[in-house]
Every structure is written in structure tokens, then in C-alpha cells.
Design a protein that fits this description.
Length: 800
């Protein structure tokens, strides 16, 4: 059953007249066997109900009103018209009736009509079919014309309290019969009036709801019908017919023109007012568009759907609150609906694009790109550009997303000129730098050909701001990017030339972003970048090694890059050693590179032996030109090393004294730097008076010298440490008691184990000094004679 109605006829039959073959009430005919699926629905819900009291009173047939009913269940839709016939076909008893039903499983069979509009249609039959096969029904053009929206509007306006009644009825019908909702009960004696209200009410419901809303006109008892909408004659209404009944009915008493108080729904209020004041056909069509659009199914979008329907049919401009949803629908709604109504709706928006919020204009521009507003897409885009331009100028807000091109022929050179003029005026209006950047992004987003000469002067403040705030500006995607960057680099170069402080400030802000493109920078700025990269240490090791190695075969480039690397911070010792390893022949570095190492060499209270060696190598390599002070300090150290070298060869007494006097006059910081070498040399040379001079001039040598002598007396057999140890302990300027005790203990061990010849040579040293020292030494040595004898007994083969 598709595209047409099948039919069923129910009445009292003579034998052989009906589908059952026997006599009695039964389905007398059907148009197709498939219609049999609807017989139970029709029998249970749609048949004519003759009042038993009236039949008992044998009222005339013409006093019985006709019936009209509809049901939707399990995919079957059935609408039926009935009338009372009086006596049985085979007897004299009352109760004969005929119900003619049309049935379908295809809602499209009703076309755009509501079931109530089929009342009194020309295809209804009041007599049995000639055979058991009845004719199917197709809706003709005239069907429903007597119950058109225009007739329904006139009907309502002609009724007492018509607007209020219709408003309550539409609100009640929207959910009638659903769980927890009241059924609708009409109380009246005129079927045309009941149908008139039902037509008006269901016209203002979505078509799908009207098709599913079952009704029965008339029933002899409201409780007997399970359908959501029931009409009864006044004498059969009973308690249910009171407008304040507690039985779950919303009552519409059509005789008294009263109804149960019902809170109007927003939807009913909207459509009822429109239906009664506008062209009712357009209003019904607008409701149909709203329902079919798909918008009403979304939470909170019923108003937007209604606005769409009114825009599509009544050409009403939507409220801005719903504009975004509707414009979005123009691209995403059902294809057939968009094809039918999209251009008209889009045109409503495009007529005055400047009135819409920016987010709506973005969507509307996409609609224009889809070709739905031919001849007006450029106007929409202009409005969007103006809106975003104002946002950028006032709030600095902008999006980087590029827009798709408009259809061919929409955008003309005049449009481009106009937009360029707008942007140029905005950029040159003295906006703050952040707004200037936002405006440049608007130009990029809309591919506006902003011309540099037109904005160059205004761009200067932005460039200076950018130079001061490198992290606050995103250069990628800016209009005139190349020219802006050119000016930026020029400003940074100028600042880098002002002095070391300014150069360091430039480097601080820009080294990370400019380091990867160092080769494109001019010297002052490149130096600032390299110097800052080294000073900030984030990538120091790799930066130094990479750039020094890159110029290892270019003396001039090497000299420049080394100076730049350490223009803001001194090189580390490891970096100086790398410098020595990779420097090409002929490279010469400025003194600035070596200021720290030269300061350490010449001024540090405690000199660093590694730095002295490094400094000497740098000078020898030619990389470093020493200052007079550095040269003098290196010469003093060379003097000291010469003295120590000669002392290591143990020269005779006279020469040793000369060397120790020279050692005495060496700078204390250098003597301390080479302390280990000095005390080793002192521990092997006997020049007692000269030793006093060294220790007086360099008292810091005493403690390490004592340590050295103690070690030598314990591990060596030479007499020099013994002579020096005794001289220190017995002299007037003896070390502190703990040191004396250590020396005496070590000297005692030496006296116990060494051969006699060693003792004699030690005595000769003291004899050359003075007889008193000779005697004193002898007395000290004699105190260990007993130990010596015992040691000899224990070690009989030791050399004597």
C-alpha cells in the first residue's frame, strides 16, 4: 500500500454479501487483500457507535449524526467515515451502520493534508460496495478544499473566544494521550464544528504529529475509546464532560464555549497568532518547513526552526538570536529542504549583512562560497571584513584561518580596492602596536594587498615595539612580512652598534630566533646574537664548537667569530683550549676575548697554574698579543721556573745560595702557584742562611716544607732533608711545637736507620755553618746511638 489508500467497508450483510459469507455485521468489502492487516484497528477503534438508548427509542435515522475517526498504530494509518443506516439488512432490529475506511502504510498518501481535512471528501461512501472488492482511493485536487487553512482561519475567527480556544487546543493536542498527559474531549452536537476545531488545531501541529494523533467523533462513552482525542454528544459526556473533571481529560465544551484551563505552550502561542493574522496557508507551510528542517529536533532549537520556517515562507528576517543556527542549517540541513528554501533564506541574510554578528557572517560567508547567495557573496564578505577589522582595531582579536575563495565573478577589483583602503586607513590611524599586528593579520586572512609605501611610516612604532618585545609578536603570516622584518633587523642593528650594554640587550631578546639565520645578519647584530647565545649557556658548548670549527680554515672569519662568541662573556678554560686546537694560522683575536685570563694571570691573589700555561701557549701561538703586564708576569714566572729547574740539579753550596736569594725575590703569588715544586727544591738544597731568607719572605712555604721534609726523612736516605729538619727545629725561628715534634720524630727515624757516612756528611754541612751547630748536631745524633746499635743488630747486612 504505497501512494494511495486501500479501502475497507464495514456494515450489516445479507448471506453471501460480506467477506465472511454469512449474515451480520462484518467487513463487507476491501480493495486489496493487504488491507486485511488494518481490519482489527478499524473494528476496534473506528466503527460507527449507534447509541443504544436511541435505538431503543427508535429515533429516526436522520437524527443520528455521522461519525469520523482516525488512528495510527504499528505503521498503519486509517481514517474512517461512518453513518447510521437503521434496521438490519436481514431483519427489523435497529443497529445497522456503515463505516467506510481508507488505510495506508505510507504517510505520503495524505499528501500535505491532516486526517481531519478528509471530512466529507467526495470519495466517502454511504452504501455497501457492489461486490466484496471495493475501490481504492487516491486524493484528488479538490480533497480538503472545504477544510483548507483559509477556511480554518475564518472558522476560528468566527467562533466566540476563538483565539483563546485555539491556543488552548493546540497546546493540548501537542501531547494529548502521551504518558502523563491529558486526553482531549470535545463536547458538542455538531460534527462540523468539532471537525472545524480539529482541523484548525492539527494544522498548527507538525504533520507527523497530526498523522499519529488518533481521534473519534462521536463516541457514546469517552472511556470506551482509547484514542487521544474523543468527541461526545452532551447527553453522553457524563462526569468527564465537566471542564474541571479529574478524569484526565482536557475538555472543550463547544456548546458553552468553555474549556479546561490549559497553559499555552510557546510553540502554540507563536503559530496560533501567526495563523490568525497572516496568510494561514503560508503559516502552515512555514510550520512544515520548521518541522522538516531538522533544527527543531535539537535541544533549545525549536525557536530557531520556527524562525527558519518563517524566513523561508513568509520572508521574515530572523532574530539575530537564531541567525547562527539558521545560517549553519543552510550548509548542513537536509539537502532537499536546502535546495527548495536555501536561496531565499540566504538572500534574507545577504540583503543587510552588516546587521549580523561576526560569527553569523563567518557562516554566511561559507554559504556565499557555496554559491547560495549569487550576486551578494561579495557584500557578505565585505561585511565580514569590516566586522573583523573593527574587532582587530578595538580589541586586537583576529583569527588566522584562511577563507575559501568566493565563486567566480563575485569579487571584483573594486572590492579589493575598497578593502585595501579600509585596512590602510585603519593601519595609519595611530593604533597601538598590538592592534597594528592584528590588522596585519586581517589583511593576510582576507588576502588584502596592503602596500608597504602606504603604511611604512605607521609601521615604525610597531617595529620598535616588536624590537622591544620579541615574544609578544608572531611574525608568521603578517602582511608585508618581508618589509617589516627588514625594518626590524635595521632597528636591531642600529641598537647593537650603540655599545656593549645595548648589544647585550638586543642579544637577550633575539638570540634564540636569529641564531638559526646568523649568516644573513650584518656584523653588529650577528655579534650580539652570538655573544648572547654563549652568555645564556643554553646551547653554549654546541654554539662555540660549531662556529669555531666552521671557520677553522679561514683566519679572518675565525678571528671575527671568536670575538663575537665571547663579546659578552669570557671564554672558559676548556673553550680556550678548543680555540688553540682549531685556530688557523694567521688568526688574531682582540684583547677583549682574553680579558679574564689576563686578569687572572696578572691580578688574582692565587694564580692558576693551568691558566698560566694556557696564557703562555696563547701567546706562543700568536692568537694573543700580551700586554706589558702580562709579558712581565710571564717573564717573572719564567724566572721562577728557571730557578727551580737549576735547583733540581742540586748545585754546590755557593750557587744554591744565589738561587735561593733569587727565589726569595720572586712574587709571592707565583711562588704559591708553584708551591709543590718550590718545597721539593728547598728540601734538597742545603743553604741554611739563604733558606731563612726564603721562609722570611714566603712564610706560607713553611707548613708544606715541613710536610715535604717529614716525607723525605721517612722514605729517603739523603742527608739534605735531615740537615734542614734539624736546622728548623734547633733554630731560633723554629716552627710551632706540633711541627717541631713531627720533624724530630721523622729525624729520629732517619738517624736510626741511615749509614754512618750519611751522619758524617750531615755533620760536615753544619761544620761549614758553625762549630756550635756542628756540636749541637752531634749531641742530637748521639741521643739515638742506642737505637742505632739495636737497629744494626736487627739489620746486620744494611750498608754502613
Amino acid at each position: 500500500m504505497s501512494g494511495r489508500f486501500e479501502t475497507l467497508v464495514y456494515t450489516d450483510c445479507r448471506p453471501g454479501q460480506g467477506l465472511n459469507g454469512n449474515a451480520g455485521l462484518q467487513f463487507q468489502a476491501r480493495s486489496a487483500d493487504s488491507a486485511a492487516a488494518a481490519e482489527t484497528l478499524v473494528r476496534d477503534h473506528l466503527l460507527y457507535e449507534p447509541p443504544s438508548r436511541w435505538m431503543a427509542d427508535r429515533r429516526p435515522v436522520e437524527q443520528y449524526p455521522p461519525s469520523f475517526a482516525h488512528i495510527s498504530s504499528d505503521g498503519i494509518l486509517a481514517t474512517a467515515s461512518g453513518l447510521y443506516l437503521g434496521r438490519e439488512a436481514n431483519g427489523t432490529r435497529e443497529g445497522n451502520q456503515l463505516t467506510h475506511a481508507v488505510v495506508t502504510t505510507d504517510p505520503a498518501s495524505y499528501a500535505d493534508l491532516r486526517p481531519a481535512q478528509l471530512f466529507q471528501a467526495g470519495f466517502w461512501s454511504g452504501v455497501p460496495a457492489p461486490t466484496t472488492r471495493s475501490d481504492p482511493v487516491r486524493l484528488g485536487d479538490a480533497v480538503g478544499t472545504d477544510h483548507s487553512p483559509t477556511h480554518a482561519q475564518a472558522f476560528v475567527l468566527g467562533q466566540p473566544h476563538g483565539r483563546e480556544t485555539l491556543l488552548a487546543l493546540v497546546s493540548a493536542l501537542a501531547d494529548a494521550g502521551r504518558p502523563g498527559r491529558s486526553r482531549v474531549l470535545f463536547v458538542g452536537d455538531d460534527i462540523a464544528t468539532v471537525v472545524g476545531w480539529l482541523v484548525a488545531g492539527t494544522l498548527l501541529l507538525p504533520r507527523e504529529r497530526a498523522l499519529e494523533l488518533g481521534f473519534k467523533i462521536f463516541s457514546t462513552d469517552p472511556a470506551r475509546s482509547a484514542l487521544p482525542v474523543v468527541a461526545v454528544l452532551p447527553e453522553f459526556a457524563g462526569p468527564a464532560g465537566r471542564i474541571d473533571n479529574p478524569l484526565g481529560y482536557a475538555v472543550f465544551d463547544l456548546l458553552r464555549h468553555q474549556h479546561t484551563p490549559i497553559e499555552p505552550t510557546p510553540s502554540a502561542s507563536r503559530w496560533v497568532d501567526l495563523f490568525l493574522t497572516e496568510d494561514p496557508r503560508d503559516v502552515v507551510d512555514a510550520l512544515g518547513v520548521a518541522t522538516a528542517s531538522g533544527l527543531a529536533g535539537d535541544d533549545g532549537r525549536e525557536e530557531a526552526a520556527a524562525a527558519l520556517g518563517l524566513a523561508a515562507i513568509l520572508h521574515r528576517r530572523p532574530d539575530p538570536r537564531h541567525a547562527e543556527a539558521i545560517v549553519g542549517w543552510l550548509r548542513t540541513g537536509p539537502e532537499g529542504m536546502r535546495h527548495a528554501y536555501g536561496p531565499d533564506v540566504a538572500d534574507l541574510f545577504a540583503e543587510t549583512p552588516e546587521r549580523w554578528p561576526q560569527r553569523v557572517l563567518v557562516l554566511l560567508d561559507e554559504v556565499g562560497c557555496d554559491g547560495l547567495v549569487p550576486g551578494r557573496a561579495a557584500d557578505v564578505r565585505l561585511a565580514l571584513i569590516i566586522s573583523e577589522l573593527e574587532d582587530a582595531r578595538v580589541r586586537g582579536a583576529v583569527t588566522d584561518r584562511r577563507l575559501p575563495p568566493l565563486p567566480a565573478g563575485e569579487w571584483h577589483p573594486d572590492h579589493s580596492d575598497h578593502v585595501r583602503q579600509l585596512l590602510t586607513e585603519a593601519l595609519t590611524s595611530g593604533v597601538p602596536p598590538q592592534r597594528f599586528e592584528a590588522l596585519l593579520r586581517v589583511a593576510t586572512r582576507f588576502e588584502v594587498d596592503v602596500r608597504w609605501p602606504d603604511i611604512a611610516g605607521a609601521a615604525e612604532s610597531f617595529v620598535r615595539y616588536w624590537a622591544d618585545h620579541p615574544r609578544d609578536v608572531r611574525p608568521a603570516g603578517l602582511a608585508c612580512h618581508d618589509r617589516l622584518e627588514e625594518r626590524l633587523l635595521s632597528v636591531l642593528e642600529d641598537r647593537a652598534r650603540l655599545g656593549s650594554k645595548d648589544q647585550a640587550e638586543v642579544g637577550d631578546g633575539w638570540w634564540q630566533s636569529l641564531l638559526p639565520r646568523l649568516e644573513t645578519l650584518n656584523s653588529p647584530l650577528a655579534e650580539a646574537v652570538l655573544g648572547a647565545a654563549v652568555r645564556h649557556r643554553d646551547e653554549r658548548d654546541s654554539v662555540v664548537e660549531r662556529h669555531l670549527t666552521a671557520h677553522r680554515h679561514d683566519p679572518g672569519g675565525f678571528s671575527w667569530v671568536a670575538g663575537a662568541l665571547w663579546s659578552q662573556s669570557a671564554p672558559t678554560t676548556a673553550e680556550l683550549e678548543l680555540l688553540l686546537d682549531v685556530a688557523p694560522k694567521g688568526a688574531r683575536l682582540t684583547r677583549q676575548v682574553f680579558w679574564k685570563v689576563t686578569d687572572e694571570v696578572t691580578r688574582a691573589a692565587v694564580a692558576d697554574l693551568r691558566l698560566f700555561d694556557l696564557c703562555r701557549r696563547l701567546v706562543a701561538s700568536g692568537l694573543m698579543t700580551p700586554s706589558t703586564r702580562v709579558a712581565a708576569t710571564l717573564a717573572e714566572d719564567e724566572e721562577l721556573t728557571d730557578i727551580l729547574t737549576e735547583l733540581r740539579h742540586r748545585p754546590d753550596g755557593g750557587r744554591s745560595s744565589v738561587l735561593l736569594r733569587r727565589l726569595r725575590d720572586c712574587p709571592a703569588r707565583l711562588v704559591q702557584m708553584r708551591q709543590a715544586e718550590v718545597v721539593t727544591a728547598l728540601s734538597r738544597v742545603v743553604a741554611l742562611l739563604s733558606l731563612d731568607g726564603v721562609l722570611d719572605q714566603h712564610p706560607a712555604l713553611l707548613d708544606p716544607l715541613v710536610d715535604r721534609l717529614v716525607d723525605a726523612l721517612t722514605t729517603e736516605d739523603g742527608e739534605a732533608p735531615a740537615v734542614l729538619a734539624y736546622y728548623l727545629t734547633a733554630g731560633s725561628g723554629a716552627p710551632p711545637a706540633p711541627q717541631v715534634k713531627r720533624l724530630e720524630q721523622a729525624l729520629g727515624r732517619w738517624l736510626t736507620r741511615v749509614p754512618d757516612a750519611q751522619l758524617e756528611r750531615a755533620a760536615q754541612h753544619f761544620a761549614r755553618h758553625s762549630s756550635d751547630w756542628r756540636k749541637g748536631w752531634q749531641r742530637f745524633a748521639d741521643t739515638y746511638s742506642g737505637r742505632r746499635r739495636r737497629y744494626r743488630i736487627a739489620h746486620p747486612f744494611r750498608d754502613r
